[in-house]
Design goal:
Length: 221
């Protein structure tokens, strides 16, 4: 199988199951225009996140890694009235683009966008006495995966869903030579989830427009 086929099938999935959406299309276009890295989730994965939020009945979402807000829009749209997404973004320029995209999608009242190092923002959330989050999506700098998972446990409750993206990395997750910090972060996510007695988890391999990758998914017990 080839990347060409994976991309064609991803496009077929989107055309068949995901209606055209001006706000989401505009978000991707704005991200391109402002030179943001093209690492947004695919439409198929964005729709999956949306459905998982709806299936879990989540009302409070924590997103670690907003980039340009494309995944944030998918997450926020899944919330019931009164629901809230707290999304964290390191880069002020990325956050500015994300804020515009979220506003254009009519979701500003549902999204609390916080700018700065995620570990600092997470510490502030704890200091503020933030209520537990029902759904946590981790898609930021991969070497910090274990630190983000520690915080996810602190800021969750039994029944919370935790998803950690990009954990397969073209199969490089099997490498043990320690030469790639992103691969080490992926392996650390597996070690954390597998070793945490309060988590029940698995991982899903994916192929598509973004290549060969996958995500880990866990539920707090």
């Amino acid at each position: 199988m080839s990347q060409k086929i994976w991309t064609a099938v991803d496009n077929y999935i989107a055309q068949s199951l995901i209606p055209a959406d001006p706000a989401l299309d505009a978000a991707l276009e704005a991200n391109r225009e402002h030179g943001l890295p093209a690492i947004d989730v695919s439409p198929a994965l964005g729709k999956l996140l949306n459905l998982l939020v709806r299936m879990s009945g989540a009302r409070r979402i924590l997103e670690i890694g907003a980039l340009g807000g494309y995944s944030t829009i998918w997450l926020a749209r899944a919330l019931p009235a009164g629901g809230r997404v707290v999304t964290l973004e390191l880069d002020p320029r990325h956050a500015e683009v994300a804020s515009d995209n979220i506003r254009r999608a009519g979701l500003s009242e549902r999204v609390d966008l916080r700018v700065g190092p995620a570990l600092e923002s997470l510490s502030k959330l704890e200091a503020e006495g933030a209520e537990p989050f029902d759904f946590i999506f981790i898609d930021a700098d991969k070497p910090n995966n274990p630190n983000y998972l520690v915080w996810a446990m602190k800021l969750s409750r039994p029944g919370s869903v935790i998803i950690c993206d990009n954990v397969i990395r073209d199969g490089a997750v099997l490498n043990t030579d320690g030469g790639d910090l992103n691969v080490e972060g992926a392996r650390a996510a597996f070690s954390f989830i597998g070793g945490e007695k309060r988590l029940a988890g698995t991982a899903i391999q994916t192929v598509g427009a973004k290549g060969y990758d996958g995500f880990a998914i866990a539920v707090v017990e």
